[in-house]
Write a structure and sequence with these properties.
CATH topology of the largest domain: set domain protein methyltransferase, domain 1
GO molecular function: protein-lysine N-methyltransferase activity
CATH superfamily of the largest domain: set domain protein methyltransferase, domain 1
CATH class of the largest domain: Alpha Beta
Organism: Perkinsus marinus (strain ATCC 50983 / TXsc)
Number of domains: 2
Helix content: 25-40%
CATH architecture of the largest domain: Alpha-Beta Complex
InterPro entries: SET_dom, SET_dom_sf, SETD3_SETD6_MTase
Oligomer: single chain
Strand content: 5-15%
Strand order of the largest sheet: 2-5-9-8-6
Distance between the termini: 26 Å
Pfam family, one: SET
Order of helices and strands: EHEEEEHHHHHHHHEEEEEHEEEHHHHH
Largest sheet: 5 strands, mixed
Protein name: SET domain-containing protein
Length: about 425
């Protein structure tokens, strides 16, 4: 069953942003850039942030950029790189993060809580202001991230009902909220009495949504593909989860993008020392006004499920939406199968026998796919021959479950009762055309 998961968006392949007005830095963007420059980073003067609509914020350049130009460079030792060490060393919340880590909260939980505290500190009502406020204030809201599986509302969840994806999302939410319970248990021992972000979090009326938001942000902004110079490993030594401020606003392009994140090594002196840095580098010449796009996977192929749970959208492959195989949890002989069929938002329709066979091999059992496709394909002019071929192949599979045989037989009968449209109708004897 190939389904486009309701509200979940796809990435935009190769579509740069071409504004009608000059690209300039607003005050919020200036604050973020000044913050990371103050921590030792270098930022190209033409780089800025712009609202990219459904994709959220994105990076744009206001002047032409030559291939090989580093638009952002951050030293490895800079405390602006967000990982567990940065959180533990944070002058504002480092002590509580270290306490949580020592009490058994895992790395993701610690970083998620650190993000929550920074976000709460960046609000106007907060009495605590940290150096991270400019960056935290720019992070997407829960509303902006509403398409992420962790933040799907009832409507989004109903769109994937009766599928294994629904069970996966539910399980992921339950595990994340179970971790929240563990966190609150640890925090209760601290006897927090001040009115700072920790106390605000504990008393927050939407604490569950806030916790899910933090995990969605962390997942979607810490999975970049990193590439190194020839001979390099392409990853930084000792890194677990890693967020790269400002770089993490770059949107994904399935065709590889016009820029990439590189790990670079350089000698620091006569005594053989070396330093590492992360750079966002132009892969080709980039025109003024063009959006900076990268490949989040660094050339690796993620499954659609990995893509959705990490970034909140289906990765495109070669500019075409990836198929998302979602096994049904319904019984073939039950009436709820009709509900599953009605819930289909999108299904790739095979154009020839080879495509049908390829599609059939992507899921299990094959007969179930043909069984579910009959109502859809039979109504599409020119697709009946392919349908019959797929149906025939499925029925010949050895070990077909009896309930699937029964379901296929029922829908085959329904198919025979339909008015003959398009290609010659298939007959049961040998599926002749």
């Amino acid at each position: 069953m190939f389904i486009s998961v309701g509200p979940l968006r796809t990435s935009t392949a190769g579509q740069g942003f071409m504004p009608t007005e000059a690209v300039t830095r607003d005050q919020s963007t200036k604050d973020v850039i000044n913050f990371i420059i103050g921590e030792g980073a270098k930022v190209h003067p033409s780089l800025t942030l712009a609202d990219m609509g459904t994709k959220g914020m994105g990076l744009v350049v206001s002047t032409d950029i030559k291939a090989g130009t580093a638009m952002i460079t951050i030293p490895r030792k800079s405390k602006v790189l967000i990982n567990i060490d940065t959180a533990c060393d944070d002058p504002d919340f480092g002590k509580v993060i270290c306490y949580l880590k020592g009490a058994g909260l895992d790395e993701r939980g610690c970083l998620a809580f650190w993000l929550v505290l920074q976000k709460l500190a960046s609000t106007r009502s907060s009495k605590v202001k940290t150096r991270w406020c400019p960056y935290a204030a720019m992070l997407p809201t829960a509303q902006k991230l509403r398409d992420h599986p962790l933040l799907l509302d009832d409507s989004g969840m109903s769109a994937i009902a009766n599928t294994a994806l629904h069970a996966s999302v539910t399980s992921m939410k339950e595990n994340t909220l179970r971790q929240l319970g563990h966190l609150l248990g640890i925090l209760s021992a601290l006897e927090v009495k001040d009115e700072g972000p920790v106390d605000t979090f504990i008393r927050h009326t939407k604490i569950k949504q806030l916790w899910l938001w933090a995990h969605a942000v962390l997942l979607s902004r810490s999975g970049f593909g990193l590439s190194g110079e020839p001979g390099d490993s392409g990853v930084m030594a000792g890194e677990g989860l890693l967020m790269i401020p400002l770089v993490d606003f770059a949107n994904h392009d399935s065709s590889g993008g016009n820029a990439e994140i590189r790990i670079q090594h350089a000698s620091t002196g006569w005594f053989g020392g070396s330093s590492e840095s992360i750079s966002l580098v132009a892969k080709r010449d980039i025109k003024a006004g063009e959006e900076i796009l990268i490949s989040y996977t660094g050339g690796d192929i993620l499954s659609a499920e990995q893509s959705i749970f990490t970034y909140g959208f289906r990765m495109d492959r070669l500019g075409a939406p990836d198929k998302f195989a979602v096994p049904t949890v319904s019984k073939p002989d039950g009436s709820d199968m009709r509900d599953v069929i009605r819930r289909l938002v999108h299904m790739d329709v095979a154009k020839d026998e080879a495509d049908v066979i390829t599609i059939q091999k992507d899921t299990y059992p094959e007969a179930l796919v043909a069984y579910m496709c009959i109502d859809i394909l039979a109504e599409k002019r020119g697709k009946l021959e392919s349908l019959c071929q797929a149906y025939s192949n499925a029925e010949r599979q050895e070990g077909m479950p009896p309930q699937v045989q029964s379901g296929c037989g029922f829908f085959y009968h329904q198919l025979e009762l339909r008015p003959r449209k398009g290609p010659k109708h298939c007959s049961r004897a040998g599926y002749n055309h």
